[in-house]
Write a structure and sequence with these properties.
Pfam families: YqbF_HeH (PF21488). InterPro entries: Rho_N_sf, YqbF_HeH. This is YqbF C-terminal domain-containing protein. It comes from Gracilibacillus orientalis. This protein is α+β, with helices and mostly antiparallel strands and 109 residues long. The chain folds into 2 domains: 46 residues; 42 residues, no CATH class. 35% of the residues lie in helices and 19% in strands. The chain contains 4 helices and 5 strands, in the order ββββαβααα. A hairpin with a 3-residue loop joins strand 2 and strand 3. Helix 3 packs parallel to helix 4. It starts with a strand and ends in a 7-residue tail after the last helix. The mean pLDDT is 86.
Length: 109
């Protein structure tokens, strides 16, 4: 994502649109930003690198034992399950490992 700012003008309608009240515009591609800057009406104020998808963390029984109850419940919730179904630490750990095994990550191509 690239953030542009309208400069030295009250408004601009073209490749992108901006005005005095809303001078900032975000574009997704470098090409669109270059076209807008080339008009002379915009300047780049911020460039953000596209975020790479985060690979899901692979949990082991040992790594889960190091987590507290709230952290274990957060993992269960993030997976879309109800953490209240697990009554104790062993249940939570077993449940997380079961969820993880039923949703394998794609590592082979």
């Amino acid at each position: 994502m690239i953030k542009l700012k309208l400069k030295n003008a009250l408004s601009y309608n073209g490749v992108v649109s901006a005005n005095e009240k809303s001078p900032f515009v975000e574009v997704k591609s470098k090409e669109a930003a270059d076209k807008a800057v080339k008009t002379g009406y915009f300047e780049v104020v911020e460039e953000q690198e596209p975020k790479e998808p985060k690979e899901p963390e692979v949990h082991t029984k040992a790594s889960l034992k190091k987590l507290n109850k709230e952290q274990q419940e957060a993992i269960i919730s993030q997976a879309g399950w109800d953490p209240s179904t697990a009554k104790n630490e062993e249940d939570r750990i077993s449940f997380i490992l079961e969820i993880q095994d039923s949703n394998p990550t794609e590592t082979e191509e």
